[in-house]
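Page 37, top half.
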Amino acid sequence: MNVLAIDTAGTACFAAIYDSETDRLSGSAGADIGRGHAEQLMGFIDGALAASGRQLGDIDRIAVTIGPGSFTGIRVGVAAARGFALALRVPVVGVSTLAALAGSAGKMYPRLPVLVAMDAKRDELYCQIFEPDGTPRTGPQVLEIIEAKKLLQNFEGVICGSATRHLTQTPLPGVAQIDAVDTAVVARLGAMADPQGNRPSPLYLRGPDVKSQSGFAVARV
């Protein structure tokens, strides 16, 4: 099965083609662009296809990161994934960034549970705990740092993500220095997911940082 994996949930913008039979990427393209995902994503998809020697018609499934992360970036990736799936008539599945980070840590520590902690700004963290097999032990949540530290009580496992510096004072069996999503892991999890009823939607654990100023709205005529 050829899987097109898309990640636009953070400052990076990546596309990759994954061959589930060989468990390897056949091509990828992308960069840490900060902004401009909508303008550059299609070019990166074309680059990944060219590097893999595949065409869009060869794609059997699409996997896309659904967040948490960049409000705008997530919308760009999910909309593109849905559009390609509709045009190609193939399944599309969503993969959370928390699950993708846990998958990367799981390759380093395959027998230990994983606590993923992402920096959510505003002195808050996106957190979730996964079992060694990748099954969620807790749901995804946004927590203040003091509340997130409580997750470490009686936790014997690995911590990873961009917010590990806030939580590493408590001794743990391992700390995986994994801050960025690996598109290969997104593709692998997407290949394993059940597409039935798994229509990807953005995973927003809180509202956008930027809100419209209603006082300056122009009345419709």
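Page 37, bottom half:
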Amino acid sequence: MNDFKKELGENIFKHRKAINMSTTELSVLSGISQSTISKIENGNSSTTIETLIKICESLGVTLYDVLPERVNPDLKTRTPYKMLFNVLNQMSDNEIKLIQSLLTTNILPVLKNITPLAKALDQLNTNERELLWKFLNSLTNNTVQDDANKREG
């Protein structure tokens, strides 16, 4: 049973770190105390299915993503595509449209004339602005982390 708790905790840790989330942030989002999250991640605590669901929802993953591989190997396809699919399944239509727009729009002409960009940003609703802010912050955090890794390596 200790191997199960250890692998479960490691999987939660990996998913949390993959999105640059602290245990404090996960605690706030999930409603689970930070100390409980730390104990679970370290394999030092048993937990309830309800607690796991709250943690998974906050991380944007499924229970199958955090359960140890041996629980059901057929359901465990840990690929970036599967993780992306899970994230997309949880997004609203507006969030998906915003991402599609960001990915398919040639922004170079917009950068030459900042006024259209400012108007487009002004037309975003509160949820779209929050999503864009989080997306840009995650890019910045990833860049900062990549730079730190390069300096260490």
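Margin note: Residues 2-75 form a domain with the 434 Repressor (Amino-terminal Domain) fold (CATH 1.10.260.40).
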